[in-house]
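Exercise: predict the structure of this protein bound to adenosine-5'-triphosphate.
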Amino acid sequence: MAVIEVDGLGKTYPGGTKALHDVSFQVPKGEVFCLLGRNGAGKTTLLRILATQLRPTTGRAVVLGHDVVHEAKLVREKISVVPQEARPQMMLSGYDHIYLMSLIRGMPRPEARKRTRAIMEEFDLWEHKDKLTADLSGGLRQRVMIAIALTMDPELIFLDEPTIGLDPLGRRQVWSMVRRLAKQGVTVLLTTHYMDEAEKLAGRLAIVDRGQMVFLGSVEAAKARAAHGMQVVVEPMNGNGGEPEVLSPTSDTEILAIVQRGIQEGRRVTFKPPTLEDAFIAMVGGGIDDEGA
Ligand SMILES: Nc1ncnc2c1ncn2[C@@H]1O[C@H](COP(=O)(O)OP(=O)(O)OP(=O)(O)O)[C@@H](O)[C@H]1O
Ligand SMILES: [Mg+2]
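Solution:
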């Protein structure tokens, strides 16, 4: 049984904004599933429906065997959510957060202390246990946010843009935490704007554009879909300076024509595999940040 089963999901907000349209996919246990899309594409809307925070307008979603609308309470017992731009209580330490959350869950104090230590040690947070979250770096703070979410022992965790604003090292630390979770069998659904993040983490990814799923599959499949699987780079004429032309042919004939032209003009022609960003742009068009363009 898939951990997430989505069938024909749609969402129109009360003001009339169609945020999602006819989205269907499944996520198996232990997968890191990435939702990729520009600002306003519908990523958070989809995540919030699956996390039972929003009702869909059409279609249905089953999470861990329970319908997200009719059995929302049962879903909530098994999931955790780290919302977009989540902020901890700055005047509490990471330890305080996890300990208090364990108490709220009804754990007796000695067990809550043990549990807090186990989570913090597991994710290399123990040495920072007494620091106020206000004093933690962005990367550490985000790892603490995820650790807090793990207090609930979720089978599925939703991370909405977990590495936004983090430096390269902070992002890598969050990635390694996500990988470790997946290894333990926790299913992860995360949204991101970062292509490298999806490349590093995604078992499969979905590209959402204007509320519709325009791609579903592996990173490799996304790249293969773009540019006929290959990009052609035509270097400028010798001594002519300038930028190389990077072309994305859509047929073998086109590739041949580009190579012939390059030879005639005495330019060097090389091939390079498309990046995920090339694939993304080919499918979505324009830059990742020009909303609704
Ligand atoms: N509560 C709301 N009421 C009305 N419209 C909304 C609401 N939340 C989101 N929208 C609209 O729905 C669309 C999808 O928004 P959503 O937040 O799901 O996008 P997103 O992909 O998460 O974007 P971002 O990358 O900026 O976080 C946008 O047009 C947005 O303006
Ligand atoms: Mg969002």
